[in-house]
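ENTRY TYPE: protein
CONTENTS: sequence, structure tokens:
***
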Amino acid sequence: MSEVRIGLIGCGGMGTELGRNVGKVGPPASVVAACDILEDRRCALATELGATPIASADELLAREDVDAVIVAVPNYLHSPIAVAAAKAGKHVYSEKPMALFVEDCTAMIDACKAAGVKLMVGHVLRYIGAFRLAADHVRKGDIGEPGAIAITRIGTLNYGGAAAEWRNKDETSGGYIFEVHVHELDYMRSVMGEPEEVYSSAAKFVPRSAGDFEDIQSVTAWFEKGRIAQLLAGNSSPSGMYNAYIQGSEGEIVFNGWSGITLRRFDEEAREISAPENAPNPVAEELGDFVTSIVTDCEPAVPGEEGRRSVAYARAAVMSGRERRPVRVSELLP
């Protein structure tokens, strides 16, 4: 295969970003078809990318000139479209969250395995400057055995326009934990291993915050090997905050925004470490990994099983916050 021909399903904000970054890193790839229910969006992006605008996913999946699809539709539609794509023989890249329920993730995994096609989930935080640097240094043992991670991400995100129709509803977006913070939960897994039990406190108390779901949430998780994690999340802050910290047996990592970290071992001077200035766009890089998995017939960088475990973690956090009880993640997985 000299070039992977991709059909883009969903031309909203994230779909546009994904479409623009196809083919910038890795083996040759191009968007040959762009699908969206809104005519102006699909036509505008198709013109920009030199692709064919298509009104329905079924029509796109029937095309023989499409080898793979990017699924960038509202969260609750990821699973049915991915399953249909697999049955049509298309490789699948699903934007995060993989789905809203573990059972839907399993349906995606099973369909792709049965069809012999690749399935990758777009957890881009693993590719972003400071986050990648920190994970690399943890894996190299530079702070010893990782013991704890804490991330705070709170903002004032209120969706408007077409996005508000699904992002502000729990049943279609999964709430703020799924629409936004599955990023952080997945990243915690990539660094700390697998969560065993989750306890979450959640509330909605800011009248102006969007959505019919919680606007502030504190998630504590106990991981394998006795590790712990803490996430403070929500969309109720007037100023916003995003920071992260990793504690190890031999030192610590403090995040300096998106592009750098401070690493300090006990009895040593702190080191400021920055991501390379010429690093590729994280979205382009993850798409390059997806295309590479197709061309070389290898495991995707973030396969469906990884996406499913992050969905289980997120679902445990939501359940715990609403039911006011600890939830074991293993009970949600097949």
Remarks:
- The longest strand covers residues 146-154.
- The chain has eleven helices and 15 strands.
- The mean pLDDT is 95.
